From TrEMBL, chain A:
Official protein name in the record: Autoinducer 2 import system permease protein LsrD
CDD domains per record: TM_PBP1_transp_AraH_like
Organism: Roseivivax jejudonensis
Chief location category: membrane
Transmembrane helix is among the record's keywords: yes
Name of encoding gene: lsrD_1
Keywords, ordered alphabetically: Cell inner membrane, Cell membrane, Membrane, Transmembrane, Transmembrane helix, Transport
GO molecular function: transmembrane transporter activity
Stretches that traverse the bilayer: 12-33, 53-69, 76-96, 102-126, 133-153, 173-193, 224-243, 303-319
Automatic annotation (TrEMBL), chain B:
Protein source organism: Roseivivax jejudonensis
Gene transcribed to yield this protein: rbsC_3
Pfam families noted in UniProt: BPD_transp_2
Keyword Cell inner membrane: yes
Chief location bin: membrane
Protein name per its UniProtKB record: Ribose transport system permease protein RbsC
Length: 333, 338
């Protein structure tokens, strides 16, 4: 066995083991503590869990790609809200009045385009100015949120389109529409990151930017594509969620960036870039949602969820460091 | 978090492209101060009420809470770390001091609140300093965990002081001394003290050394872990002061009073020119960053823009400020990223 492969194996499997432990714990604890009669491992309950993971999950998957690339995006929550407003508001624009339900694909396209444009702005600034992505997207988080508020003040933007709601609430092969979008995103991003030149270059850039430059990889465009990707996914998340709810508050999506980063880190992706996997992030998203649902199921209050997730995040970080053989060797020298 | 591009840029700028023109040099060194003065002049020309002493006092007063927190975060950022937990920690100290006020009286509640907040700071300092865990994730986790603690403490309820008119506790947020509001005095006092600590004491120099080059600092006998630990204690102390002002100003609070402030605080510190890589920044610069944010908000309102336009302007200013800063350092403004 190569040095480090055991720890890699442990880390890869850790998130799924954690999910298994959660499932077992809440099933058993639920027998004694549950506030309802239904079992925790009920199929409907699990399907609902997948559906509820979708909004943060889709964003977290995009965050994984950006973080593998060595960047970070703090503006996703604001992008999410702005895309949602474009989606709901554009359906009421007079120019689309004669289209009937054909306005839906147009509104979707407009909302998704909004996300791509906002992401492209971030990516372009990071590329051309060389300012750290953390700062660029921190500024954008404020700026985009400002745009959200300037659009409609503090009023919620609402529009109900029943065809759209029927679509969003549909269940195909038992899974909800939102779940399909989440799983589809996992599949597409997994293919992109593992079987395309762009994916491999993204890993290379995150691992060692200078080496990537020396190898002739054009770092800037790759980073910009990844920012456009996360912008698109933040918008997709908004589109999927608000198709069903039909009303967006200007504060919606606040702190989504932090939840997404939490899920990505639980999945084992490094903040320094160069390693990580979208499938493990999917595990991280499920683990967080299970924890929320499970703690609620055994009657714990919402406050406990925040406390537990925070402490688990720190514990994971600590364990990860302890398992990291390479880190230990560095300490020895 | 370390962005390799900016490290290499800084190196390159230092080696073969030093800023030659004196203007570039001046912008590089005092860019933020110049921008600040330009802003003040611009707003003053646009609206005569802007330079009114009452207006200026009002702006500083409303920036005081953010400012006090930014002072502590400056220490953490210069030491090369991040603190994203200050907003949720501020909610915690506000709720705790309000709750204890009615239970054990203000004279005991204040030290108790400071002790508890410092414990949280010590915990974070231990994790980041001694266990060497990544500060971004630790403080992200603590953001969530402390929010949970706050909700557990308050039971999810808003916290209010029963007898709002009969308590001397309101002096920290609402009182005046020699015609100057107490929050401003507290902010100024803390800024002066911490400014001296950072610029003129061995501890301050160690903070810069640890953030500038941690390995070199360790080899020159600086106990890196302890310095980082102390930085988080300073940050927690500032947060406790901010919580005290906040609690005393409103004498009642929601559980989420500090939510989102961590990023605004960080924006102010970055605007002041502190590098996220550590090793650079100063208290007076952070104060300027805080004031710029406050005066922009006020100035834009006075010239008739809607309230939320300030966020968009802040966005542009943050990026321009940092871009000019690193651009001047590396001697050219377009990034060398291919």
């Amino acid at each position: 066995m190569q040095p480090g492969s055991l720890s890699t194996f442990l880390k890869r499997g850790a998130i799924w083991a954690f999910i298994a432990v959660e499932l077992a714990f809440f099933s058993v604890a639920g027998q004694y503590l549950s506030v309802t009669d239904t079992a925790f491992l009920d199929l409907d309950n699990m399907l609902l869990l997948l559906k509820q993971s979708a909004p943060i999950g889709i964003i977290a998957l995009g965050m994984t790609v950006v973080m593998i690339n060595g960047n970070i995006d703090l503006s996703v929550g604001a992008t999410f809200a702005l895309a949602a407003i474009v989606l709901l508001d554009s359906m009421t624009w007079p120019i689309f009045a004669g289209l009937g339900d054909w306005v839906i694909p147009i509104s979707w396209a407009l909302a998704l385009a909004t996300g791509v444009v906002l992401g492209a702005i971030n990516g372009f600034i990071v590329w051309k100015t060389g300012v750290d992505a953390f700062i660029v997207t921190l500024g954008a988080m404020l700026g985009y949120r400002g745009l959200v508020f300037m659009y409609n003040g503090e009023q919620p933007t609402s529009h109900l389109n029943w065809t759209l709601i029927d679509f969003a609430e549909a269940q195909v092969l038992g899974l909800h529409t939102a779940t399909w979008f989440l799983l589809g995103t996992v599949l597409v991003l997994w293919l992109v990151m593992n079987f395309t030149v762009h994916g491999r270059n993204a890993y290379a850039i995150g691992d060692n930017r200078e080496a990537a430059v020396n190898a002739g990889i054009r770092v800037g465009p790759h980073m910009m594509i990844n920012f456009m990707l996360i912008g698109f996914l933040a918008a997709l998340s908004a589109v999927v969620f608000y198709s069903e709810s039909g009303s967006v508050n200007p504060n919606d999506g606040t702190l989504y960036e932090l939840w997404a980063i939490t899920a990505v880190v639980l999945g084992g992706t490094k903040l320094t870039g160069g390693s990580g996997s979208v499938v493990a992030t999917f595990g991280g998203v499920i683990a967080i949602q299970l924890l929320r649902k499970g703690l609620g199921y055994i009657g714990a209050d919402t406050e406990t969820v925040n406390l537990v997730i925070g402490l688990i995040l720190i514990a994971v970080l600590f364990l990860d460091r302890q398992l990291n053989v390479k880190g230990r060797q560095e300490l020895r020298t | 978090m370390a962005d390799t591009a900016s490290t290499t840029d800084a190196k390159r700028g230092g080696k073969d492209a030093p800023p030659r023109e004196p203007i570039l040099k001046l912008v590089a060194k005092q860019g933020i101060l110049i921008a600040f003065v330009l802003f003040m002049i611009g707003f003053a020309l646009a609206n005569s009420r802007f330079l009114d002493p009452e207006n200026i006092m009002g702006v500083i007063r409303s920036s005081a809470i953010l400012g006090v927190m930014a002072l502590g975060v400056t220490f953490v950022v210069i030491s090369g770390n991040l603190d994203l937990s200050v907003g949720s920690m501020m909610s915690f100290s506000t709720i705790v001091v309000l709750d204890l006020h009615d239970k054990i009286g203000p004279a005991l509640a204040i030290p108790a609140m400071f002790a508890l907040t410092l414990c949280l700071g010590a915990f974070i300092g231990f994790l980041v300093g001694y266990l060497k865990l990544n500060s971004l994730i630790v403080t992200l986790g603590m953001l969530s965990a402390i929010h949970g603690l706050t909700l557990t403490w308050s039971g999810g309820q808003n916290m209010d002081i029963a007898d709002k008119s009969g308590t001397w506790f309101s002096v920290f947020g609402q009182g005046e001394m020699l015609g100057i509001p107490v929050p401003i005095l507290l902010f100024a006092l803390l800024a002066a003290t911490l400014g001296v600590v950072l610029a003129r004491t061995p501890f301050g120099r160690k903070v810069y050394a640890v953030g500038g080059n941690g390995t070199a600092a360790t080899f020159s006998g600086i106990r890196r872990a302890r310095v980082v630990f102390l930085c988080y204690l300073v940050s927690a102390f500032c947060v406790a002061c901010a919580g005290l002002i906040q609690a005393s100003r409103s004498l009642g609070s929601q559980n989420t009073v500090g939510q989102g402030m961590e990023l605004e605080v960080l924006a102010a510190v970055i605007l002041g020119g502190a590098s996220l890589l550590g090793g650079s920044g100063a208290i007076y610069k952070t104060v300027i960053g805080v004031l710029i944010l406050g005066f922009i908000q006020n100035g834009l309102l006075l010239i008739g823009l809607q309230f939320y336009a300030q966020y968009v302007v802040t966005w542009i200013i943050i990026i321009l400020a940092v871009w000019l800063d690193i651009g001047a350092k590396r001697g050219r403004f377009l990034s060398p990223i291919a």
